[in-house]
Design goal:
Layout: H1 8-20, H2 23-41, H3 45-59, H4 67-88, H5 97-116, H6 122-142, H7 151-172, H8 176-186, H9 190-215, H10 220-243, H11 249-273
Helix pairs in contact: 2-3, 2-10, 3-4, 3-6, 3-11, 4-9, 4-10, 5-7, 5-9, 6-8, 6-11, 7-8, 8-9
Length: 274
């Protein structure tokens, strides 16, 4: 019998890890990072979850969880988490013209691309997702703090910006980076920014979830996963909200953006090698 060398040890450990990972275990691990980030920043949960999913798929540690199943599940969980965040902060929410205009451009395309999702080629879908994740990560890490633009300028760009966010939102549930680019120029008040993003993510998330449900993609297994992961989602979201006042947002955003970008690059490598 041949003796094991030191080079065989990492491979043996990797095989053990790949056999021990299950879909629900992976989902719970990703939820810790995704919803802690959402609690701290008010968004970015889908970006973090999708980045982690791409990494797990690239390393063969997905436990059998497919890209589509992950995208379906995060739509369910994110809709709940956004609703919970909105319920906690409902007194600070205010419907404004820029929000209405952005939703007018965003919601129809969210529905269209959500309905297209089950028909798309998974290999090319993973490429688009990897590029979108890299874009979201670069935006998070490199975003500059610029002075607010005029209300006229913001309103003029609200509908086309919403439309672009609707494409990414419908496919991956992560229209946030596009929305943030405009809303970050609309006001320098963090409270106003969070209020607008919560309204938009709640509306878009609900529309996307309904569209997916109507196509019949959800099974009892998806609902079981959601029930098991729900305590993790809630605990991570509340932990992030608690940490919001104790972590410097800029430092956290840069670190998060760097990690997300690396995960997107991993997704590109997976596409190239597949």
């Amino acid at each position: 019998m041949p003796r094991k060398t030191s080079a065989d040890c990492p491979r043996h450990l990797f095989r053990i890890l790949s056999r021990s990972v299950t879909p629900i275990l992976l989902i719970c691990i990703l939820c810790v990072f995704a919803y802690f980030a959402k609690g701290v920043t008010g968004a970015a949960s889908a970006i973090v979850f999708n980045a982690g999913l791409l990494t797990a798929l690239a390393l063969g540690l997905s436990g059998g969880l497919t890209l589509l199943e992950g995208l379906y599940w995060i739509a369910l969980a994110d809709c709940f988490a956004s609703g919970l965040l909105g319920a906690i902060l409902w007194r600070r929410l205010k419907l404004e013209k820029v929000t209405v205009l952005m939703l007018a451009g965003m919601l129809p395309l969210t529905v269209v691309f959500t309905l297209l999702l089950p028909t798309l080629d998974l290999r090319w879908l993973s490429l688009v997702l990897a590029l979108a994740v890299i874009g979201g990560g670069v935006y998070l890490a490199m975003r500059r703090d610029l002075p607010p633009a005029s209300a006229t300028t913001i309103n003029r760009w609200a509908v086309p910006t919403g439309a672009m966010a609707g494409v990414l939102g419908g496919l991956f549930g992560m229209g946030g980076p596009v929305v943030f680019i405009l809303l970050s120029r609309a006001s320098d008040d963090p409270g106003v920014f969070r209020s607008r993003t919560i309204i938009i993510t709640n509306a878009a998330g609900m529309v996307r979830l309904i569209a997916l449900a109507l196509t019949g993609v959800y099974t009892s297994e998806h609902l079981t996963w959601f029930g098991i992961a729900l305590p993790v989602v809630i605990a991570s979201l509340l932990a992030g909200m608690w940490a919001h006042h104790r972590i410097k947002p800029k430092s956290f955003r840069i670190a998060l953006g760097a990690l997300v970008t690396l995960a997107g690059i991993g997704g590109l490598l997976r596409f190239a090698l597949s």
